[in-house]
Here is the input.
Amino acid sequence: AYPEVPDWWYAAIFITMTVIAIITCEIWDYKLPWWGVLLAVLLAAVFALPVGLIQAITNQQPGLNIITEYVIGYILPGRPVANVTFKTLGYISMAQAMTFTSDLKLGHYMKVPPRAMFWAQLVGTFIAGLVNLLTANWLLKSQEGVCTSANKDFRCPSAKTFFSASVIWGVVSPNLMFGASSMYNAINYFFLIGFVLPIPFYYLKKAYPNSWMDFIHIPVLLSATGMMPPAQAYHYTNWLAVGFAFQFFARRYHPEWHLRFTYVMSAAFDSGVAFTGLLTFFIFTIRGKDMVQWWGTRGDLCPLEQNPYIPAADE
Here is the structure.
């Protein structure tokens, strides 16, 4: 058997990175105190197990973005930078932990030594973080109007969603948006609904173990809408079509083919999208060339897509 990774390796990285996060927030004045960093890390640690269970069963990961924004928005209202920093430490840390755990699981299946996986993840994280930062700086300096409507090639939907969230939860604060005197106060009841709704379906599955109830998973159904924005309607239709084709049709009617090729096809889809994105960037975007025009690249043909606001009746 391959030698396992000692627990103190992980503990050393955990403590070191937490201390670095505290020092960073204190020196660069992110408006997030040291105890806010510890609270974010605690939330990530507490939710890692239940989120990991859901992801292991369904391959879907419920996000902690709203929970982290909600919590720190109440504690430190009016601090947008602190809000997004807390979300990054509390939500993204947990998401990265799930990604690393999935990698280790894949490495176990492929019989890759655990220590080799550990160092690959560590070095890969360092390289990816450095490349990400350098690429972002290069784009901001080289692309005019990046992340604005003036630049059609770099709209940055994820970054805009991040910014919008900092305004709602940080600048405005959840107390004003969803407090007792707010018109959106009723939304808070959905926390209770989300807590209670899985319970009856759990007992129904126990009562009818071989029925269609096995296909109902409330956390996945409820968390799917949390991806929008930045996900759009066509993302869901594509996911549904591919998932139905492979996880229902192929699995039920061609189990041998499914067992042999499904995971390879999944990796091929991911790799193909990544390589296509690189080719598109270097062939068209960086040279200022327009994309090939055909019906699939002309938007969703919705008249409100570019003008989402309906003018007033008296205008």
User: Anything to note?
Assistant: The chain has two domains: 7-216, 232-290. The two ends are 75 Å apart (CA to CA). The mean pLDDT is 86.
